[in-house]
Amino acid sequence: MILSLARRFLVAALVLGTLTLVPIRASASEVLVFAAASLKNALDKIGSDFERRTGHEVTVSYAASSVLARQIQLGAPADVFISANVDWMDVLQDQDQIKANTRVDLLGNRLVLIGGPDQTGVGEIRADMDLSAALDGGHLAMALVDAVPAGIYGKAALQNLALWEEVQSQIAQTDNVRAALALVATGAAPLGIVYRSDAQVEERVQVLGTFPSDLHLPIIYPAAVTTWGRPEAQAFLTYLQSGPAREVFADQGFALPGS
Question: Key word Metal-binding present in the record (predicted)?
Answer without folding.
Answer: yes
